[in-house]
Amino acid sequence: QVQLVESGGGLVQAGGSLRLSCTASGRTLGNYAMGWFRQAPGKEREFVAAISWRGGNTNYADSVKGRFTISRDSGKNTFYLQMNSLKPDDTAVYYCAARRTIATVYDYWGQGTQVTVSS
Fold first, then answer.
1. How is residue 104 annotated by DSSP?
2. 96, 79 in Cβ contact below 8 A?
3. pLDDT mean over 3-21
4. How far is CA 94 from CA 25, 49, 72, 76, in A?
5. d(CA 95, CA 7)
6. 100: buried, middle or exposed (CB in 10 Å: 19+, 13-18, 0-12)?
7. Rounded CA gap, 91 and 82, in Å?
8. Angstrom distance (rounded) from CA 56 to CA 73
9. Beta strands of 26-107 (E only): which ranges?
């Protein structure tokens, strides 16, 4: 199993920045992809960004492309979501997640961290 612990959420004004962190433990991550998802009140969970652990290939939702950056630090078993130019619509609980690269379903999830962007 992979255990994920998130941190870095908070309250910011529109246009501000936050960096979320997710630390993984339990196994080596070379065959995994890591992702960030978010869920706003009354809405479905949505994909935000993902990165392959081995190669560092990234993918972003159109809604955050150009504003958010996903990265990882292999030495710390940690990956990040740098969020810039935040908008009120970015307000949500953000979850980090992990899946095997050959899978399509994210099987491991963090506890979530609240991001609130005021207008």
1. S
2. yes
3. 97
4. 19, 11, 17, 21
5. 10
6. middle
7. 15
8. 10
9. 32-39, 46-52, 58-60, 68-73, 78-83, 92-100
Mean pLDDT of 75-88: 96
Q: Which helix (H) or strand (E) holds 10?
A: strand 10-13
What integer best gives the mean pLDDT of the chain? 95
Side by side, the strands of the sheet bearing 3-7 are 3-7, 18-25, 78-83, 68-73
Burial of 90 from C-beta contacts in 10 A (0-12 / 13-18 / 19+): buried
d(CA 28, CA 45): 27
